């Protein structure tokens, strides 16, 4: 979901973030906590997670690594860096987030202590709102965020710190596999406890922790299988194109008669756009079959060079969509789609050597 920019870094909300917000809002209706206090607590907690992620981004910038975006998930935020971090960089960047939450908690607890205000006494005060005000809840929430993120399991910061430490003595794939396995075990344990204790918030968190750990493990395996391999080894070399004067009807007929779902649009020998299946169907519904593809195609498409390293292309593909055009100068030489890339990774995993 579209969000906003913070200090130049795009911030987006994952749609599942709304599920947590709805759950928390429903929780307050059955509690003794005033709606105003709890609303302030939720806003403060959101700001705390943002500050947590900005700490990652600011420390990464000290190493010359730019943060491409921050995505807010139900279990916290995720900072996407422009490149993979070296062990020392990852260790320092990972610990910056929990340190920020500890600093926020220390400041709030110091203020509450000096003003003799009540403070949270247990975890249940956070999971089941009481008469505590917004500041005590926020102090406890930041402590909880810090401790939760320091757990040595993916996708928490502690898991990334563990991978960084293991990275000094083990290959990245093995270090990631260990941290991801610990993340899955933590998620299973948390989920089972939540079911037996009938604490469905823990089950909710466990589900996303398991998904995050599994995705991180898969991403690390993908980087290992593609490192040092050029794009040309995985691209599609037999494909159909559309002319800029073709209609949406022509594109739809080509979609039906082939297995291809993304079509480069050419004006002579020059590539001027890309028309994917979803964009084609949207144009068919809104513009009709006689509309020209030149008026509905995507002109801002991802271009790759044949010699680029596939491991560097993976995050670009994740952001750009399901298809990229492989260009040798101004000449179109192939397509790289997420489907073909998945098949390539599968074959590589079974030991097939790419033809370079």
Describe the overall structure.
The protein is globular. The chain has 2 domains: 223 residues, no CATH class; 82 residues, CBS-domain (Roll). The mean pLDDT is 81. The chain is an alpha/beta fold. It is built from 12 helices and 10 strands. It has a 4-stranded mixed sheet with strand order 1-2-3-4, with helices on one face.
Summarize the structure in short.
By secondary structure, the protein is α/β, with parallel strands linked by helices.
What order do the helices and strands come in, and which of them pair?
Blueprint: E1 4-6, E2 9-13, H1 17-29, H2 35-62, E3 67-73, E4 76-81, H3 87-114, H4 124-127, H5 134-149, H6 157-166, H7 172-196, H8 200-226, E5 242-243, H9 248-257, E6 262-267, E7 270-276, H10 277-286, E8 303-304, H11 310-320, E9 323-328, E10 331-337, H12 338-349
Placed side by side, the strands forming the largest sheet appear as 1-2-3-4
Describe the global form: globular
Give the beta-strand count.
10
Q: Rg from C-alpha positions?
A: 24 Å
- List the helices and strands in order: EEHHEEHHHHHHEHEEHEHEEH
Alpha-beta classification: alpha/beta
Q: Biggest β-sheet: count, sense, barrel?
A: 4 strands, mixed
Report the total helices: 12
**What is the straight-line distance between the termini?**
39 Å
Strand content: 5-15%
Number of domains: 2
**Which segments are poorly predicted (pLDDT under 50) over 5 or more consecutive residues?**
none
Give the oligomeric state: single chain
Helical content band: 40-55%
**Kindly state the mean pLDDT as a whole number?**
81
């Amino acid at each position: 979901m579209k969000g906003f920019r913070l200090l130049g870094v795009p911030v987006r909300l994952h749609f599942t973030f709304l599920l947590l917000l709805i759950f928390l809002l429903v929780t307050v209706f059955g509690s003794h906590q005033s709606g105003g206090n709890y609303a302030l607590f939720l806003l403060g907690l959101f700001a705390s997670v943002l500050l947590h992620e900005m700490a990652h981004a600011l420390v990464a910038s000290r190493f010359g690594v730019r943060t491409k975006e921050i995505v807010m998930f139900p279990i916290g935020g995720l900072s996407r860096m422009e490149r993979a971090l070296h062990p020392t960089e990852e260790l320092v960047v990972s610990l910056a987030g929990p340190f920020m939450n500890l600093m926020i908690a220390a400041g709030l607890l110091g203020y509450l202590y000096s003003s003799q205000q009540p403070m949270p006494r247990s975890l249940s005060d956070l999971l089941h709102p009481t008469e505590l005000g917004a500041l005590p809840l926020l102090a406890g929430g930041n402590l909880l965020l810090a401790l939760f993120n320091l757990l040595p399991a993916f996708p928490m910061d502690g898991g990334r710190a563990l991978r960084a430490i293991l990275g000094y003595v083990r290959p990245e794939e093995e270090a990631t596999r260990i941290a991801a396995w610990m993340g899955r075990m933590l998620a299973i344990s948390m989920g089972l406890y939540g079911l037996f204790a009938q604490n469905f918030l823990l089950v909710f968190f466990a589900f996303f922790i398991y998904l995050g750990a599994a995705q991180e493990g898969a991403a690390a395996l993908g980087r290992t299988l593609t490192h040092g391999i050029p794009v040309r080894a995985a691209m599609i070399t037999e494909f159909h194109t559309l002319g800029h004067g073709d209609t949406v009807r022509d594109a739809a007929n080509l979609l039906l008669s082939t297995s291809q779902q993304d079509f480069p649009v050419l004006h002579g020998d020059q590539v001027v756009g890309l028309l994917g299946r979803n964009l084609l169907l949207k144009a068919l519904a809104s513009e009709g079959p006689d509309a020209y593809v030149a008026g509905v195609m995507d002109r801002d498409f991802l271009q790759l060079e044949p010699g680029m390293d596939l491991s560097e292309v993976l995050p670009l593909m994740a952001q750009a969509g399901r298809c990229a055009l492989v260009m040798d100068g101004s000449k179109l030489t192939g397509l790289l789609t997420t489907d073909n890339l998945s098949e390539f990774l599968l074959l590589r995993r079974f030991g097939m050597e790419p033809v370079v």
